[in-house]
Amino acid sequence: MSREASFSRTTKETDISLRLELDGRGNSDIDTGIGFFDHMLEGFARHGFFDLDVKATGDLMVDCHHTVEDIGIVLGSAIKKALGDKKGVRRFGSCILPMDETLVLCAVDLSGRPYLVFDGEFTTDHVGYLDTEMVREFFYAISYSAGMNLHIKVLSGSNNHHIIEGIFKAFARALDEATGIDVRITGILSTKGSL
C-alpha cells in the first residue's frame, strides 16, 4: 500500500503544490525560488528516503517568510495525510547527526499532539536567500500541521550552513524512523488506542 499524499495551498501570498511519498527512494524535484531552501529540502528527501516534489511561487519581493512558512504547512499536512490511520507505524524516531563541527539532535513523536521545542541559535541573518529565523518557523509549521511533537537541539556548531543542513538531515532521519512500519505493532502504538 503506497503511503503518499499530494497537497496544495493557494493564498494571496503563495501558490504551493507538493507531493510526498513516505516509502520512496530519496528522489526530489524542488523549486521554491529560494536556492538554499531548495538544497535543504533536497537533503531532507534524500536522507529520509522520501520522494518529494515541491513547486512554489511566493511574494519573495517582500521576503522569504510566507513561502517558507506555507511550505512547512503544506509539508506537514502531506505527512499527516500520507500516514493515514497510523496502523503499524513506529511513532517515535530520533537522530543525533554530525556534520563537520556541528552536532544536531532531533526527536519525533507522531502523537497527533503538536509541539515544537527548538533549541538552536544562528550568528548570521541569512544563508543564501533563506533568513535563518525562518528555520524555526518552518519546523513550527510542520509540527502543527502534521500533529507532531518535534524536538530539535543544536548540540554544537559554528557554521550556520552546517547547522541548518544538520537540522534538516537529522529531521529526515528521525522522521524516516518514526514513519516506518514495524510488523510487531498491531493496530496503533498507543495505550489509548488512537494517535
Put the structure in a nutshell.
It is built from 4 helices and 10 strands, in the order βββαβαβββββαβα.
| DSSP strand tally | 10
H and E order: EEEHEHEEEEEHEH
First-last Cα distance: 20 Å
Uncertain runs: none
Total helical segments: 4
Report strand %: 25-35%
Radius of gyration of CA atoms, rounded to a whole number: 16 Å
Structural class assignment: alpha+beta
Provide the descriptors you would attach to this structure in a database record:
single chain, alpha+beta, four-stranded mixed β-sheet, 4 helices
Describe the structure.
With 195 residues, this protein is α+β, with helices and mostly antiparallel strands. Helix 1 (35-48) packs parallel to helix 4 and helix 2 (65-83) runs parallel beside helix 3 (133-146). The chain has helices at residues 35-48, 65-83, 133-146, 160-179, and strands at residues 4-10, 14-21, 28-31, 51-58, 92-99, 102-109, 115-119, 126-127, 130-131, 149-156. It is built from 4 helices and 10 strands, in the order E-E-E-H-E-H-E-E-E-E-E-H-E-H.
